[in-house]
Design brief:
Two copies of one chain form a homodimer. Chain A is an alpha/beta fold. The first copy, chain A, has two domains: 222 residues, Rossmann fold (3-Layer(aba) Sandwich), CATH 3.40.50.1100; 76 residues, Rossmann fold. Chain A has 13 helices and nine strands. The first copy, chain A, starts with 5 loop residues before the first helix and ends with a helix.
Chain lengths: 326, 326
C-alpha cells in the first residue's frame, strides 16, 4: 500500500466536510501557567459520536465506489471504531456488520445497534476475530474498514491535524511539539502528515500506556514489536496488540519518539480537562495531555498541541476518577 | 439608563474579539432523536474561565475610559461574575476588588485571588453587601461592574447570541425557540436582543429554578417581584433575589414566557451533556437544557437553541450527579 500524502488528507477534508464537526482548539490560562508552555488542546472528544474515529471511517467508506460498498461494510472493534463505522455506514445508506467481543461495554454495543449496525459477538479467549471477520466479509461480499492500517483511514484521522494547522496559523503560532494518544498509530501518523507539511520542525510524539509501549520499542528497534498479552490499563481504547504497518512507516521518519504514561497520570489529566477545560475525556483520550501535565516531556517555553481524542467514558468510571482527587 | 441596542452588541463583539473565545454550537444525534427536535447547544461552559460572564465583565471594563478605571474596579458576587471581573480587570491591567460572602466556595475565592483580585469577605447573614461595596467603591474611587443591570454587561452577554445567530445562518437554520438559564436576566435579555434582530419570530425563554421563579411571576405581573428568601436549589449560580430592571424592560416584550425547572431535571440535563455532548455543565448552566429534555416545553418538530452557560462545578458535586443515575 502507498503511504497517504498531504493531498490525500486534503481530499479527505473535502469528503468529510458535511459529515464531521470542526472541533475547537481549547486553551486554559491555568494549564499554561502550570506547564510554563502555550498549551492548546484539540477537543476531539466533542466530535460527533465522541471520538476522532468518525473521520477515518467516514473517509474510508466515502472513498469506496458505490459498487464496492453496495452490500455494506464490515469491521471489528470493541469501542469507538465500531461506533464510527456504524455511523459512517448509515450516512451512506449501507449496512454495517461489526464483530465485537462478547464482553464489550454494553453501552457501546447498544450504540452500534442504535445506529443500525449488526453486532456479531465473539469469544475473546477462544475465537480469533480476524478469522470471523474474514469469513463474514467473504460470505457477504463486504469490504473491511480497518481501524488504522488503511491509507484512507489515516488520511481521515489526519484531517484533525489539518484543522489544528489552520487554527494555529490563524493564531500566529507555530507548534514546537504535538502529541496524540496512540494504539495502532492511525491518529498520530495522520497528525504527523498534517503538521509536518505546514511546520517542518514540529516534533510529533505518540503517547501510549505504560507496560503497553510497543510504539516506543518498535521505533527504537526499527521494526514492529508486539505488546505482551494480558497487560491491563485504564486506557481501554489504546490496547491494540501492535501498531499498524502504515503508521510505522510514517512514524519511522515522522515521530520524534513515543512516550508512555501511567494510569495515575491519565486520571490526573482527565481531572484537569474537567476542571480547566470543562470537557469530558475518556482515559485513552487523555493520554497525550497526561504526558504533558505529568512532566513526562519537558515543554517549558514551548508551543504545544495535544489531541484529546475521545470522550466515550462510562459515568461510573468518570465519577471514580473525579473522586480519586480527594 | 437606555436599553442596549443591536449596535451595542456589535460594538461589544468588536471589543471582545481579542479576549473571549468563540464557543461552538454542539449537536447530538441522540438528543435530536430523544426530543424530536433539531437541538443546538451553545457550549459557553467552554468559555475562558468557564462561563459567559467573561463577556459582560470584559465589555463593561473595556468600554470605560482609562481615567474611569485607573484605580481599578469593584464588584460583588459569590461565583462566576467574581472570577470574570477579576480576569477582565487583569486584562486591562487594573486592580479588582470583589466583595464575596465568607462562605463562598473556596475554589472560587481561590481563583479570584489567583487572578490578582482582592477578596473582601462579608457575613451573608449580618451584613449588606450593597452597603459594603458602595463604601469601598466611594473610598477608593472604583467604578462598579454590576452582574446584570448594566447596558454594557447585557450587550457583552448578547455577543453569545450574535455567535449563535451567525452559526445558525451558516447552517441554513432559523430557530423557533431559544432558551437560556436566568437569574438576573442579563444573558437571556442579551440573547433576545441578538436573536430577535436576525430572527424576529423566535421565542425566547429564560429558565430558572423551581421555587425561585421570580422571572415567570414578574412577567405575569407586569412588574418585578422578588423571590422569597431561603429557597434552596442545586443551581447556585441562579439565586439572585430579583431580576434586573434592564432585563425586565427588555424581557417584557422580548421573552415569550419564563420556565421553571426542578433540581432533578437539572441533574438529568447535566448527565445528558456529559454522555451525549462530552461537556461539563454546572447546575445553573444546565437549566435551559433541562427545560427541553424534561418536556417542560414542547419542542417536537422545532429548531431549538439552548445555552449551556457555565461549567464551574466542583468535582465531588459532579461525581454525585453522575452517580444519581444508578
Amino acid at each position: 500500500m502507498d503511504l497517504p500524502t498531504i493531498k490525500d488528507l486534503r481530499d479527505a477534508a473535502a469528503r468529510l466536510a458535511p459529515h464531521v464537526r470542526r472541533t475547537p482548539l481549547l486553551e486554559s490560562d491555568a494549564l499554561n501557567a502550570q506547564t510554563g508552555a502555550r498549551l492548546l488542546v484539540k477537543a476531539e472528544c466533542l466530535q460527533r459520536f465522541g471520538s476522532f474515529k468518525l473521520r477515518g471511517a467516514t473517509n474510508c467508506i466515502a472513498a469506496m465506489s458505490p459498487d464496492v460498498r453496495k452490500n455494506g461494510v464490515a469491521a471489528f472493534s470493541s469501542g469507538n471504531h465500531a461506533i464510527a463505522v456504524a455511523a459512517a455506514a448509515r450516512t451512506f445508506g449501507v449496512p454495517a456488520v461489526i464483530v465485537m467481543p462478547g464482553d464489550a461495554p454494553r453501552a457501546k454495543t447498544h450504540q452500534v445497534r442504535a445506529l443500525g449496525g449488526e453486532v456479531i459477538a465473539y469469544d475473546r479467549v477462544r475465537e480469533d476475530r480476524e478469522i470471523i471477520l474474514g469469513a463474514i466479509a467473504r460470505e457477504r461480499g463486504l469490504p473491511i474498514v480497518r481501524p488504522f492500517d488503511d491509507p484512507f483511514v489515516i488520511a481521515g484521522q489526519g484531517t484533525c491535524g489539518l484543522e489544528i494547522a489552520d487554527d494555529l496559523t490563524a493564531l500566529g503560532l507555530a507548534p514546537d511539539v504535538a502529541l496524540a494518544p496512540a494504539s495502532g498509530g492511525g491518529l498520530a501518523s495522520g497528525l504527523a502528515l498534517a503538521l509536518r507539511d505546514r511546520f517542518p520542525k514540529v516534533e510529533i510524539y505518540p503517547v501510549e500506556p505504560e507496560g503497553h509501549d510497543d510504539l516506543r520499542r518498535s521505533l527504537a528497534a526499527g521494526a514492529i514489536v508486539e505488546n505482551a498479552p494480558g497487560v491491563r490499563s485504564i486506557c481501554d481504547a489504546l490496547m491494540a496488540q501492535r501498531m499498524g504497518d502504515l503508521p510505522f512507516a510514517i512514524g519511522a521518519d515522522g515521530f520524534a519518539d513515543a512516550i508512555a504514561v501511567s494510569d495515575d497520570s491519565v486520571r490526573a489529566a482527565m481531572r484537569a480537562a474537567f476542571a480547566r477545560l470543562k470537557i469530558v475525556v475518556e482515559p485513552g483520550g487523555a493520554a497525550a495531555l497526561a504526558a504533558v501535565l505529568s512532566g513526562a516531556i519537558d515543554v517549558r517555553g514551548k508551543t504545544v498541541v495535544v489531541i484529546a481524542s475521545g470522550g466515550n467514558v462510562d459515568a461510573d468510571v468518570f465519577a471514580d476518577v473525579l473522586r480519586d482527587a480527594n
